[in-house]
Design goal:
One of its GO terms (molecular function) is argininosuccinate lyase activity. By secondary structure, the protein is mostly helical. The chain has 18 helices and 6 strands. Helix 4 crosses helix 5, helix 6 runs antiparallel to helix 18 and helix 7 packs antiparallel against helix 10. The structure holds arginine.
């Protein structure tokens, strides 16, 4: 048997190892819809331009739809000998419609074919991610609204810093997810150019209409430079960059869920639906979903570095190195999708332990800054001096093993004689969060307003 694909030039079949390193069909079959859509648009354009006959184009379209149906039904015999999705589809087309199949590849190369297929796929992935970020934002907004008044400790260095509201904490993640979402929209505007018709790298002498195929495939316009068209993978790198940043955000929330759901913190409880048990320790409820979300970040960040490294130093235009773009991106698409879905699920699922959060918010002298601010506001102390007085109050409370609010007035007055009974109003955690009304601050009314603002913004987006 000769060489099925390159019979003209090649007498022998590829070595088994050559086939193994070269064949991409095992993973690029995922592009079958895009490949068929791209080929249909190309064939229709070729017919409109009088480059191939109308009947041949109609046969090609019919055959391609038959192939799509076979693949969807699981009846398609993918072949490694036919290397990739492009050759698999074309060879099957010849089996179904005969010689007219040979006209499809006029004025086209696999280089622009794979570029258009992959771009379409990544565009779809960006759109899906954009919608998934929207669902996460909705889930976070619901919790933020519900817990606008729920006081929890805010942390720096994972040590209690100042009381905040759980609603405000949720809104911090809304900000992150909204930036991730907008990165999708930004990237789509840049990738929305169609490389089909760049052919191998130089363009073609056939009178093709690249604007027509671009439009038919839902792109804004054709790419401008044929060499760049077949050598550019920025759209894939942008997806991986967006996904990496988003995965970092998700890993931070996942980490907090892990911490919050420990018996020591006991801030949230995940239901049975989002927990796993231990095979040996009957008491355990493990937050495996959160841990796996945290871990997906490793794969996604790895994919970014992997593709950056593949692309680095590649001379123009196409080199087969670029076939190594797909597995990384496909894995990142899937990892991001499941991480987003699991996070959205956990955000909606978790039961918030309001009492535990509130109790913890009062630990660690969390209203010390409120005391210092009171000394500045009511007694006119410079903040540095107020900081010093408050430090001594904390030391005193620590030695008595009580909170600031439990110190006797007379004790406070030994530190600063002008302190009055009124100071106790600012030493409670509720008063503390209510006072944080500066724009972007944690006060419950701010949180309610921020939720409402986000809802309007999402509606208009
Ligand atoms: N399977 C190839 C890829 O994914 C398609 C393009 C092949 N082009 C070529 N000149 N060998 O990149």
């Amino acid at each position: 048997v000769g060489n099925e694909m390159w019979g003209g030039r090649f007498a022998a079949r590829p070595d088994a190892i050559m086939q193994e390193i070269n064949a991409s069909i095992d993973f690029d079959k995922r592009l079958f819809h895009e490949d068929i859509d791209g080929s249909k648009a190309h064939a229709a354009m070729l017919a409109d331009q009088g480059i191939i006959g109308r009947e041949d184009a109609a046969e090609i379209a019919r055959g391609l739809e038959a192939i799509r149906a076979e693949i969807v039904a699981g009846d398609f015999a993918f072949s490694r000998e036919r290397e990739d999705i492009h050759m698999n589809v074309e060879a099957r087309l010849a089996e179904i419609i005969g010689p007219a199949a040979g006209r499809l590849h006029t004025a086209r190369s696999r280089n622009d074919q794979v570029a258009v297929d992959f771009r379409l796929h990544v565009k779809g992935a960006f759109q899906a991610a954009e919608a998934a970020f929207g669902r996460l934002i909705e889930a976070l907004l619901d919790r933020a609204e519900e817990h606008a008044d729920t006081v929890m400790p805010g942390f720096t260095h994972l040590q209690v810093a100042q009381p905040v509201t759980f609603g405000h904490h949720c809104l911090a993640y809304v900000e992150m997810a909204a930036r991730d979402r907008s990165r999708c929209a930004d990237a789509i505007t840049r990738l929305d150019e169609c490389p089909l018709g760049a052919a191998a790298l130089a363009g073609t002498g056939f009178a093709i209409d690249r604007h027509a195929t671009a439009l038919a495939l839902g792109f804004r316009e054709p790419t401008r430079n044929s060499i760049d068209s077949v050598s550019d993978r920025d759209f894939a790198l942008e997806f991986l960059s967006m996904a990496s940043i988003a995965a970092v955000h998700l890993s931070r929330l996942a980490e907090e869920i892990v911490i919050w759901s420990t018996p020591q913190f006991n801030f949230v409880r995940l239901s049975d639906a989002f927990s796993t048990g231990s095979s040996i320790m009957p008491q355990k409820r493990n937050p495996d979903a959160a841990e796996l979300v945290r871990a997906k970040t490793g794969r996604i960040n790895g994919a970014l570095i992997s593709l950056l490294t593949v692309m680095k130093g590649l001379p123009l235009a196409y080199s087969k190195d670029m076939q190594e773009d797909k597995e990384q991106v496909f894995d990142a698409i899937d990892s991001l999708a499941i991480a987003l879905a699991a996070t959205t699920g956990m955000v909606g699922d978790m039961t918030v332990n309001v009492a535990a959060m509130r109790a913890a918010a009062g630990h660690g002298f969390s209203t010390a800054t409120d005391l210092a601010d009171w000394l500045v506001r009511e007694l006119g102390l410079p903040f540095r001096e107020a900081h010093h007085v408050t430090g001594r109050a904390v030391a005193l409370a620590e030695s008595q093993k009580v909170g600031l609010e439990a110190l006797e007035l007379s004790a406070l007055q030994t530190l600063e004689p002008r302190i009055t009974e009124a100071v106790y109003a600012v030493l409670g955690v509720d008063a503390s969060v209510r006072s944080r009304t500066s724009f972007g601050g944690t006060a419950p009314d701010n949180v309610r307003k921020a939720v409402a603002d986000w809802r309007t913004r999402l509606l208009s987006a």
